[in-house]
């Protein structure tokens, strides 16, 4: 056989092998194992694992973990080209081994690396699922604070359905963590102390802003900027008041795009019944005490909760003008709530809010969650759903309520360090509770995190 014929036959054989592989045949070339694997405990409950991919971005990757003399467990299956993974749900003060594999003809694993998680400083917590089949699946993100050491301990954690902490960020650098939101890219926008910052799920702090005194609420607008409530001093009639304003920021540069003092359009001084006459709240006497911002689904309006006036304002985004005022001294809804927190607009247009009950008429002391149906044109409002316990619970400040996809309501009982999930009929489905005196400012249920 001449050389030309040998080359033709060899080419045909290679072509046939390539076609067979294309029809589902397996390559006989083993993918190179990842190298330079590194692992670090990011909290007592989760770790980060990074590596160099040696497969040229062609092989799927698998991350495995084992504790002590246990078996290897797969904790992540990742697409080709991946270089990093988070492992949630670890035990504090425990040593773990990790390895990363590249799948080819078999799996080629990297060298093993070890991490040891730190001791947890979180308070003990109890959780119970009373009706597990009725729960909205997912993790619950919540912010924890210790009122006795408000500037020394604060944490943002994720807990599973059993109440087990699986993830956490927080230490003395974060001061008190109150509001937080998950941004589209998977990072977190966190209000910490009187500022805010963007934090990765791994705990890396990307930037920090504290040029103004922020309080209560930060939100990403539908057009991609950040809207925050800020406090400042306002002298009226010779008296110094602690007033509120809405501040808009560019999240990329942190440039201030504008500030809107609420007293100019929302709460003229002559109409304001003062709630607290103390002189030590932020800059002066507590006046409006706005505590929440909520955008309407049409993106043309926002709702502003002004606690000390017992009012919710509907404002035009384009003009800044008030469309209507719900609550005491407003256009409708007189007496429906007292010192409310966190109004939410539901899919059906109803308003869900946490009715704290501070300074309730008749000196009744109880908190509840109410759902309000209102008619913009007729200026009518009524309560169509209420959750109130027997005996009553009471949380004077804070508090939150979210309507979940399955129709349940997730309620944050802030001052009592409690989060509960309630069915539409008012049945207690799930409860998470911290020990005294720890508080929970806010809680949200997410399908998965990070």
Structure description:
The structure is a single chain. With 450 residues, the chain is mostly beta strands. The chain folds into 2 domains: 82 residues, Immunoglobulins (Immunoglobulin-like), CATH 2.60.40; 322 residues, TolB, C-terminal domain (Neuraminidase). 5% of the residues lie in helices and 48% in strands. It contains 2 helices and 34 strands. Strands 3, 4, 6, 7 and 8 form a 5-stranded antiparallel beta sheet that branches. A 5-stranded antiparallel beta sheet has the order 9-33-32-31-30, with no helix packed on it. Strands 17, 18, 19, 20 and 21 form a 5-stranded mixed beta sheet that branches. The chain is globular. It starts with a helix and ends with a strand.
Task: Draw up the topology in text.
Layout: H1 3-22, E1 35-43, E2 46-52, E3 61-67, E4 73-78, E5 84-88, E6 95-104, E7 106-109, E8 113-116, E9 125-129, E10 139-145, E11 154-159, E12 165-169, E13 177-182, E14 188-192, E15 195-199, E16 205-209, E17 213-220, E18 226-236, E19 239-249, E20 256-261, H2 262-265, E21 285-286, E22 290-295, E23 301-306, E24 311-316, E25 322-327, E26 340-345, E27 351-355, E28 368-375, E29 380-387, E30 400-403, E31 409-413, E32 418-422, E33 428-434, E34 439-446
Parallel strand pairs: 19-21
Antiparallel strand pairs: 1-2, 2-5, 3-4, 3-6, 6-7, 6-8, 9-33, 10-11, 10-34, 11-12, 13-14, 14-15, 15-16, 17-18, 18-19, 19-20, 22-23, 23-24, 24-25, 26-27, 27-28, 28-29, 30-31, 31-32, 32-33
């Amino acid at each position: 056989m001449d050389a030309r014929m040998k080359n033709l036959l060899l080419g045909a054989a290679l072509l046939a092998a390539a076609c067979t592989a294309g029809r589902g045949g397996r390559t006989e070339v083993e993918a190179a194992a990842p190298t330079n694997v590194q692992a670090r405990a990011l909290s007592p409950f989760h770790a980060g694992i990074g590596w160099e991919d040696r497969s040229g971005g062609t092989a799927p990757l698998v991350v495995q973990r084992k504790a002590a003399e246990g078996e290897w467990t797969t904790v992540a299956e990742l697409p080709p080209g991946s270089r990093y993974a988070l492992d949630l749900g670890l035990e504090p003060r425990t040593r773990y081994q990790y390895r990363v594999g590249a799948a080819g003809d078999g799996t080629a694993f990297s060298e093993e690396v070890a991490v040891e998680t730190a001791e947890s400083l979180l308070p003990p917590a109890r959780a119970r699922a009373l009706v597990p089949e009725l729960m909205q699946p997912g993790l619950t993100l919540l912010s924890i604070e210790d009122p006795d050491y408000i500037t020394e301990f604060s944490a943002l954690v994720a807990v599973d359905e059993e109440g087990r902490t699986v993830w956490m960020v927080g230490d003395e650098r974060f001061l008190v963590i109150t509001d937080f939101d998950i941004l589209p890219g998977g990072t977190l926008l966190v209000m910490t102390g009187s500022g805010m910052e963007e934090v990765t799920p791994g705990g890396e702090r990307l930037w920090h802003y504290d040029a103004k005194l922020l309080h209560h609420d930060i939100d990403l607008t539908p057009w991609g900027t950040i809207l925050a409530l800020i406090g400042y001093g306002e002298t009226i009639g010779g008296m110094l008041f602690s007033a509120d304003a809405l501040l808009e920021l560019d999240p990329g540069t942190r440039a201030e795009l504008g500030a809107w003092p609420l007293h100019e359009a929302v709460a003229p001084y002559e109409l304001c019944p003062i709630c607290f006459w103390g002189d030590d709240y932020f800059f002066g006497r507590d006046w409006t005490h706005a505590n929440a911002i909520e955008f309407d689904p049409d993106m043309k309006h926002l709702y502003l909760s002004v606690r000390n006036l017992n009012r919710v304002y509907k404002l035009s985004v384009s003009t800044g003008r008030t469309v209507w005022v719900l609550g005491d001294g407003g256009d409708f809804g007189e007496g429906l709530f007292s010192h409310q927190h966190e109004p939410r607009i539901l899919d059906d247009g109803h308003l869900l809010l946490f009715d704290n009950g501070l300074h309730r008429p008749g000196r009744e002391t109880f908190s509840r969650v109410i759902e309000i149906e209102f008619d913009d044109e007729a200026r009518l409002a009524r309560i169509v759903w209420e959750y109130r316990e027997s005996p009553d619970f009471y949380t004077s400040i804070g508090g939150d309520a979210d309507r979940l996809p399955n129709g349940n309501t997730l309620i944050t009982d802030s001052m009592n360090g409690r989060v509960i999930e309630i069915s539409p009929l008012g049945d207690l489905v799930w409860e998470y509770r911290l020990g005294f005196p720890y508080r929970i400012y806010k809680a949200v249920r997410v399908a998965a995190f990070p």
